[in-house]
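User: For a reading group we're discussing how well predicted structures match intuition. Take Mutator family transposase. Before you show the prediction, I'll give you the sequence so everyone sees exactly what went in.
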Amino acid sequence: MNSIPEKNSDGQVEFHDLIIELIKNFLENFLKAELTEFLNYEKHEYSGRNSGNSRNGSYLRDFLTQFGSIKGLNVPRDRNGEFQTELFQPYKRYDNWLEEAIINMYANGLSTRYVADWIEQMYGQKYSPTTISNLTNVALEEVKKWKERPLQKRYSVIFIDGMSIKVRRDTVANESVYIIIGINEDGYREILDFYIGATESAALWEEVLSNLKERGVQEVLLGVIDGLPGLKDSFLKVFPKADVQRCIVHKVRNTIVKVRKKDTDEIVKDLKKIYRSPSREFAEKALEEFDFKWSKIYPKVTQSWYVDKDELLTFYKYPESIHKAIYTTNWIERANKEIKKRLKPMNSLPNVQAAEKIIYLKIIEYNSKWSDRKMRGFLAAKDQLHQLFKKDTDLFT
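Assistant: Thanks. Here is the predicted 3D structure of Mutator family transposase, as structure tokens, for the group to look at:
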């Protein structure tokens, strides 16, 4: 016989308790129906005699649902111990919503201790932060599969950009997260991979990029990168036929920190004339004017623009409709800021695995959002980009 919900001080049944009781009744009827289906005969039915198996009472267990905790759920059992309900796995005392909620809270930057405290306050169920961490380890399994998934053969552009996060190894220190994004020949973007590292080297970047090739990436037109040590050489070693574009916005930022504040606005205005020119020819003339105007005051600054000129102006080789999308990694930084926002409540990550879980879950969210949105300008550039791929049949052989 089912228990009756308790009444409050006014003699009224609490609405929440009523809901829980209704759910409990439903689940117990569901379990009985499952056992009947499993045994293939109704309770007390003659056909069940000498069937080799029969009902064998029930046992009680508590069960957490999204509506609250159900106490003393009657779970039927069979004499042979073969019946297993689809409602929950053996020894699992909550339905999948709680596991999903834990992972989502963790993905949104809440600490394992906070999540454990929340569960205890809401449901009276005690979990240690370690247990919560173990529950979120399902994400680590998915990270491994995701990092090994096959990739497309062609990407018009590959972007590489980094951000800094605090991670504990022996001590807490800043480490870099590098996000690798590809835009395919139809203009759809996707985060291909990410890497967390305390140090950088040409050998490391070659390994990271070679992994992309092993997973299927064979043809790349353009790599948009910042001046990370060893990255350009490693990129061209793995994709020797690709062009390289240095991020102009990063270059501008690096420039203005080397000039006096009173000159900043004017220098930025003059630099815009270079990368917003209608053609490479006009851009080079604007660079000459910039050099003529500022070389006596800031010779190292103007010289650095000449040294990096070819990589800074590569984008002029590509359709004008995608210029703003490929001469900077600024739009990637918006994604990076969202990822950092998820990490911020945790102050510092207890280990690399914790960082990977959160970053991966946010990346999946971005890839899902981007999957049906073409990058601005790439639809208009589609035919020209296809021609660049086909320009020389031996280009990528």
